[in-house]
Amino acid sequence: MDEHFYNTIEIEGVAEFKDRSSKFLAFAFPVQDVDECKERIAFLKKRASQS
User: Fold this and answer.
1) How far from chain centre, in Å, is Cα 31?
2) Helix (H) or strand (E) holding 50
3) Taking a C-beta distance cutoff of 8 angstroms, is the pair 13, 5 a contact?
4) Would you say 25 and 14 are in contact if contact means Cβ atoms under 8 Å apart?
5) Contact 45, 51 (CB under 8 A)
6) Does any domain span residue 2?
7) Which domain holds residue 38?
8) I want to staple 29 with a disulfide (CB 3.0 to 4.6 A). Which of 11, 12, 22, 43 is the partner?
9) Is residue 3 domain-resident?
10) Containing H/E element for 33?
11) pLDDT at site 16
């Protein structure tokens, strides 16, 4: 197997879990390369800082 081969998901997913006074968010999204992943993470961080 190619050492640079990665599996990914086909569609985006979002989940939220609340426990007592804490809220946990999970995001999953398909990406084709590391740069796309970094862009998505930056977007999520920016969105979180605006809340």
Assistant:
1) 10
2) helix 34-50
3) no
4) yes
5) no
6) no
7) 13-50
8) 12
9) no
10) none
11) 94
